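FW: tagging you since you asked about this chain on Friday. Here's the raw sequence from the shared folder, copied in full. Didn't touch anything.
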Amino acid sequence: MKYVLDTNIILSYLRKNDVWGLIETSLQFFDSGTKVYIPAIVIGELQSIAIQNKWGVNKQNELQLFITEFIKIDIISDEVINRYAEIDAFSQGRLEGKALNYSARNMGKNDLWIAATASILNATLITTDKDFQHLHPNFLQVAYFEIK
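HL: got it, structure written out here
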């Protein structure tokens, strides 16, 4: 299996939220053959959150250690760029040949990059928010976990 982690998933881990244990157990992140990716966009979002919230050295070190456990995606290929454009147009209900069965969705630009990366990797996007649901299954598989 292949997975891409959304920013909120890593925040769940850092905040010791119960949802992390459920995700780790049910998706078996550390089994052989499982690949877990973290896009550079997610890392940038996390570092911005760390600055804005004045995280201490220990929490910043915990974040860096967590990131090293997985595969960092720091290159945006032409394929990802093209998929970004398709997903953005689809989300606005303006992609020819693919009808959006909802009202138009204004996705955050970082979420578009994360979705495009997961789509090109043919990886399931793991998230705790519903911002990606309209893309499932047209562009990618989305696994939604609710934080309680």
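FW: The chain has a mean pLDDT of 94.
HL: agreed, and The two ends are 26 Å apart (CA to CA).
FW: great, closing this out.
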